[in-house]
Amino acid sequence: MNIALIGYGKMGKMIEQIALAQGINIGVIVDPFISESGKNIYKTINEADFDSIDAAIEFTQPDSAAANIIALAARKIPVVTGTTAWQNRMDEVTEAVKKADSSLFWASNFSIGVNMFYRIAWYASGLVNNFPEYDAGGIEYHHNKKMDSPSGTAKTLAEGVLNKIDRKKKIVWETIDRKPEADELHFPSLRLGSIPGTHSLFFDSPADTIEITHTARSREGFASGAIQAARWLTNNKRCGIFTIDDMMNDLFKE
Fold it and tell me: Which positions ≥6 away from 155 have C-beta within 8 Å?
């Protein structure tokens, strides 16, 4: 397999390390801020040679992700993107991918562990739905270099909880200077130091508290999942828009 890396920051370098260990070739690296030099390293997508590339893995910034995906779609390059907070341009991106008969795999979090955590948390939420004495809420922690808040992982988690607990109607992300309403799911964020990505969901009653937590020790889980997604996307030459749920459903069947 021959992949392109769009974005060569910490995540891009981690993907490169794991890909090479798996015998995957890094044929192209694109990053406007790159300091390294080499024949396969480019500042922009338009400069790069994608002739031998099977798929691109994109981890950049919210303000550049949609344009990157559209540019790669125009070249019929399957794209896996883990960049978050660009989905306000999803309609435009979807149109470009489908028009090019290409493919896009996007996720707020590629970690297999996180995606098992989602399903555990949502199943638990369905159980709690039957017990009105339990309130629900959560919190997420990340290092102080993280660009967005709340995290894409927190959004996916909380939206899934909302779909399972009928008495919760809306998510409140910000700090509130009042008593929360009974139909609000409060899910604030903390950015501090070098804290690893941590997401916790709580169910609390007058008698006890149930806590479900996922903590990422490193970026390795995200990088491995992104590479697995690239394999999944290209193995059967899939066309269209896919999410982590599509791949996880296949994995659970296996």
Answer: 108
What pTM was computed for the model? 0.81
Is 146 a catalytic site residue?
Answer: yes
82 CB burial (10 A radius; 0-12, 13-18, 19+)? buried
Give the tens place of pLDDT for each residue, 170-203.
Answer: 999 998 999 999 999 999 999 999 998 999 999 9
Question: Which residue reads 């509130």 in tokens?
Answer: 176
Report how far residue 31's alpha carbon sits from residue 200's, in angstroms, rounded to the nearest whole number.
34
Which residue of the set 13, 98, 146, 164 is catalytic? 146
Question: Which residues make Cβ contacts (< 8 Å) with residue 92, sequence separation at least 6?
Answer: 66, 70
Asked if omega into 150 is within 30° of 0 (cis), the reply is yes
Which of 142, 155, 168, 186 is an active site residue?
142
* Residue 13 falls in the annotated catalytic set: no
